[in-house]
Amino acid sequence: MMEKELKSVGKSIRKKDSMQLLLGKPVYTDDVTGEALVVKLLRSPHPNALVEKIDTTVAKKVPGVVDIYTWEDVPTHRFAIAGQTFPEPSPYDRLIIDRHVRFVGDVVAIIAAEDEKAALKAMKLIKVTYQVLPAVLDYRTAKDNTTLVHPEEDWYPPCPVGGDNKRNLVASEVTSHGDVEAVMADCDIVLEHTYHTKAFNQAMMETFRTYCEMDRYGRLHVISSTQIVFHCRRIIATALGIPKSMVRVEKPRIGGGFGAKQTAVCEVYPAFVTWKTGRPSKLIYTREEAQIAGSPRHEMEITVRLGASKDGKIRALDLYTLSNSGAYGEHGPTTVGLSGHKSIPLYTGSVEAFRFGYDVVYTNLMAAGAYRGYGATQGIFALESMVNELAEKLRMDPTVLREMNMVRQGMVMPAYYGEVAAACALDKCMEHCKEMFHWDEKYPVRDMGGGKVRTAGVAMAMQGSCISSLDVGSATVKLTEEGGYNLLIGAADMGTGCDTILAQMLAENMECSVDNVAVFGADTDASPYDSGSYASSTTYVTGKAVELACDKLKKQMCRIGAQLLGCTPEEVEFQSGKIVNPATGESVTAAQVGCKSQLNNEEAAEATASHASPVSPPPFMVGMVEIELDQRTGLVTVLDYMAVVDCGIPINPALARIQTEGGIVQGIGHTLMENITYRNGRPAESSFMQYKIPTRLDMGTLKVEFETSFEPTGPFGAKSIGEIVINTPAPALAHAIYRATGVWHRSLPITPEQIAMGEE
């Protein structure tokens, strides 16, 4: 554990941008950009079709229309829009505009006009003749279907992930450890069930939006609501066929992302317009566009086979995941892996053998992407539900069953790439949550009269803290002449508070106040390279980069300070934010060093460091929910949700708690109300009138507490927290609903209608 008392880390310090947001200051993309051409997109009404003819003659005559672009006007080389490390595991299967449209909402034409009214009028006047093709709308029939979503010959996979466009396969793989079939054959109990999660929209407040202009050097300057400025630069450059050096991407505040903005959903369209016209342009998705042509969670069907002894020891696990990537590959190859690799390891304490296989398929539906939890959410719903089913079959307390089988400190996790659980307080989380929740009192089914019953459910979860051996976090720390510090980062704060958390780490390292730290990010011209804000990596990876940069800066400040003290650098040390000569007791302040760095100086008072980790230490969580269920109507009311999280050492407990509460509410929404249904390939829920998201009235009472562990590879012992928090509500609620009704619901969402009718 840490030896000295910390002054900034571990404190609930107010977010750096909180006052600007509360006061409604201009901080978002549309606030900080000026007048520009309005960009609108004509979208396909068909799930699978070829554009036979498109006539824009009349539309171009509308006053105010600058130009209209079709598939004949754009580059013909394919690219991917998923924000992932190069070379991308995503297949190159997109064009800016393709003659072959592959889902309802796919882009047919780009309209650039002086104002929105002209653009919308022109859109209605474009005449398109389609050759409608058979569509693959059922992901269960997609693999080896005679209808190919991507029949093109120039489909290109940069990485070998088992994809084959001539089989409608985005990715495919099987991994295993031990002899699954032999262990299963020796088990007293073998259970097998299939669990289904729908696609869910992120429903962030700020929709997708991008502004583009040509800067004074003739470069394309992009200001976008994105989580991935550096990946976005590469995607735009690849799409346009221009050098990355000609593209600059920056982000202002982001009005929510939850993973959706890890995909460059809209950036290439205004970028193309500005590159062609030389004029500023702006594209703002309507809520309908965000709902029908966004980047939702992957629909997955997960079959779980579990082998156990009659005393409750879980001995073998066999998972197969079928994932629906939609019309394009995007995050399909990477999301699916988490459904097994971040669920099976929870039972490392007992499992003797496991097998995990998956297929990711193309369909003619909206392409899926990243969403908080990134596949682990779907996998944990399946496996945790199966464990709860085992507990009910054995008539065991499900918390006791988990305590018998869970991963514990120091265990090697074969299903988690052979990593060691070097920091694991999952057992303490379970014990703490049971006590806080009063599990023994709330778990039994209680008849409240009037057809209403109360009961409880439980689940546990894990996630990761980065993409091991891939993600890069970087930070630049500069000393100012006043003794303050500038922190330059490439990670994107999207409301999570990472600017504040990284500033706290800098303040702790440099022994100054957080108020003396100014944070800037993210801008591809000014920020050091960072993979971006995804995979729960910012605190763990970029935080470590901040720590390393501070160590470098201290040495540089010592060399400058030694000049002021008239001694050698070896005679001084960094103490309490000053440069001190212990032998003489003399010292100089950071401000004095900052001033000296600007006068007859050859030692830069700034440092940059990058960090990547060979491991991804998992955070752990236990969640328990109490519900009241009306047996007459099927209505579920969440009364209490309590969670205990092991995220290592919480850098900012208040922000960690808020992250947890937000994730729990999202998970409640996924389980009880959020739904995407398709009518002839078109999502029916095109607004918040149809797509219901949870409000304050749907969440009950939330209580979050922490059990700390010390992660030796993390900054100040920290792990991640951003994603794990969404993973327990679905299996916990499904468990509680079973307790109240006697019916297992294995498909999400679980609606009142399904409950009232007793449908699984």
Content of β-strand:
15-25%
Count the E strands: 32
Strand order of the largest sheet: 3-5-1-12-9-10-11
Please mark out the parts with pLDDT under 50 across 5 or more consecutive residues, or reply none: none
Question: Can you give a write-up of this model?
Answer:
There is one protein chain. The protein is of the alpha+beta class and 760 residues long. It folds into three domains: 153 residues, Aldehyde Oxidoreductase, domain 4, CATH 3.30.365; 186 residues, Alpha-Beta Complex (Aldehyde Oxidoreductase, domain 3); 300 residues, Aldehyde Oxidoreductase, domain 4. 26% of the residues lie in helices and 25% in strands. The two termini are 48 Å apart. The mean pLDDT is 96.
SSE layout and pairing:
Layout: H1 18-22, H2 29-32, E1 37-43, E2 49-55, H3 57-60, E3 65-69, E4 100-101, E5 107-113, H4 116-125, E6 127-132, E7 169-177, H5 180-185, E8 189-197, E9 209-214, E10 220-224, H6 229-240, E11 247-250, H7 268-277, E12 281-284, H8 287-292, E13 299-308, E14 314-326, H9 332-341, E15 353-362, H10 376-394, H11 398-405, E16 412-413, E17 419-420, H12 426-437, H13 439-442, E18 446-449, E19 452-462, E20 473-479, E21 485-489, H14 498-510, E22 517-520, H15 538-565, E23 573-575, E24 578-580, E25 587-588, H16 590-596, E26 606-611, E27 620-630, E28 636-646, H17 653-672, E29 678-679, E30 682-683, E31 701-706, H18 729-741, E32 747-748, H19 752-757
Parallel strand pairs: 1-12, 8-32, 10-11, 14-15, 21-22, 28-31
Antiparallel strand pairs: 1-5, 2-4, 2-6, 3-5, 7-15, 8-13, 9-10, 9-12, 13-14, 16-17, 18-19, 19-27, 20-21, 20-26, 23-24, 24-25, 27-28, 29-30
Helix pairs in contact: 6-7, 9-10, 10-18, 14-15, 15-16, 17-18
